[in-house]
TrEMBL record:
Taxonomy, superkingdom: Bacteria
CDD domains, per database record: HTH_LacI, PBP1_LacI_sugar_binding-like
GO molecular function: DNA-binding transcription factor activity; transcription cis-regulatory region binding
Pfam family, one: Peripla_BP_3
Species annotation: Dyella choica
Domain HTH lacI-type as annotated: residue spans: 6-60
Keywords: DNA-binding, Repressor, Transcription, Transcription regulation
Gene3D superfamilies xref list: 3.40.50.2300, lambda repressor-like DNA-binding domains
Identification of the protein by name: LacI family transcriptional regulator
Length: 354
């Protein structure tokens, strides 16, 4: 038979099942045996059957699409995060709609509002999103999972990276390696991630290098801001023994500034970053960094959202924290290998009120 414009009835006839069974399989509604699911999907693929999404949405009340609002779509961190989200979404038969909010709170609101009615749920990572923002811009019943957020609400699950513990572990390593004078390149002042990483750095210095002042330079997570910070450090007297950047891109910019000035890393100055993006291990020298399992962050967030899409799931909202390790490479002059920071996923219950 021709496969042009195949209908759901064609799929049912070829698979020798009912139209209702085909609908349940393709809409991910369950109630069909794994063997039947396999047959239906194989037949649908062979016939090039394309569901009428508009009609399907009218029947099911679902779009089978989830939205992701991120600070930016540029760079290795966000591409890896999107990859983790997308791979998990495919497992659940969901499509992914992505937008960015890097131009401020109004851009974040516009991105969120543009997705309303087009998605079944959202993942939101934005420094501009707080409880008031969510209340004003999101429908009450829309499932939402927040990433790296300080929001405390009984309505919204949050998945955070243990930024503070990761920073503490890296600074402790630097001090124990003999680098007591540490400079920290901070991230954006409004970023929850950046705030927590700076707090961890300060706490570790107070504990492991008491009385030694911490040099803090402004950054914004971009390579260029790391380069400017590196240039500024070149003129410092005395120069710090080590630089800890709040993300790998700033560490890469800082490394460029040091190399241009003829400084040897780690011979003249040690360097470390945060995130463990792919390129960090291929630099010269390879970069010591706090390893964030970026794809896992996206995957776990999507799994939490997929659970919220199931009306039978009554799991209360919680704050979950994804731990990280520090990976020691040549840039800080330490012995190569991995030093473990808290790496398990921790969950804490939500307060009952916002």
């Amino acid at each position: 038979m021709t496969t042009k414009n195949a209908t759901i009835k064609d799929v049912a006839r070829e698979a020798k099942v009912s139209v209702a069974s085909v609908s349940r399989v393709l809409n991910g509604l369950g109630g069909v045996t794994p063997a039947t699911q396999k047959i239906v999907r194989e037949v649908a693929t062979r016939l090039h059957y394309v569901p009428d999404n508009a009609a399907r949405s009218l029947i099911t009340g679902r779009t089978h699409t989830i939205g992701a609002v991120l600070p930016d779509l540029y760079g290795e961190f966000f591409s890896e995060l999107i990859r983790g989200i997308d791979l998990a979404a495919r497992v659940h038969g969901l499509h992914l709609l992505v937008s960015s909010s890097h131009d401020g709170a109004e851009a974040a609101a516009a991105a969120v509002c543009a997705m309303r009615g087009r998605v079944d749920g959202m993942l939101i990572l934005s420094e501009y999103v707080d409880a008031a923002f969510l209340e004003h811009n999101l429908p009450d019943k829309l499932p939402v999972v927040l990433l790296d957020s300080p929001v405390k609400s009984a309505r919204y699950p949050v998945l955070n990276i243990d930024n503070r513990a990761g920073a503490i572990a890296m600074v402790r390593h630097l001090v124990e390696a003999g680098h007591q004078q540490v400079a920290f390149i901070s991230g954006p002042k409004t970023s929850f991630n950046a705030q927590q990483r700076e707090k961890g750095c300060r706490a570790a210095m107070a504990k492991h290098a008491p009385g030694v002042p911490l040099t803090v330079l402004d950054g914004n997570f971009s390579e260029e801001s790391g380069y400017r910070a590196g240039q500024e450090l070149l003129g410092r007297k005395p120069r710090p023994q080590a630089v800890f950047a709040a993300n790998d891109m700033m560490a890469i910019g800082c490394l460029r500034a040091f190399k241009e000035a003829g400084l040897n890393v780690p011979g003249d100055i040690a360097l470390a970053g945060f995130d463990d993006i792919l390129i960090s291990r291929y630099l010269t020298p390879p970069l010591s960094t706090v390893q964030v399992r970026i794809a896992d962050l996206g995957r776990i967030a999507l799994e939490r959202l997929a659970g919220l899409l199931n009306p039978a799931d009554k799991t209360p909202a919680s704050v979950e924290t994804l731990g990280c390790d520090i990976v020691i490479r040549e840039s800080c002059g330490g012995k190569a290998g991995a030093t473990v920071a808290p790496s398990k996923l921790r969950k804490s219950p939500r307060p009952l009120r916002t």
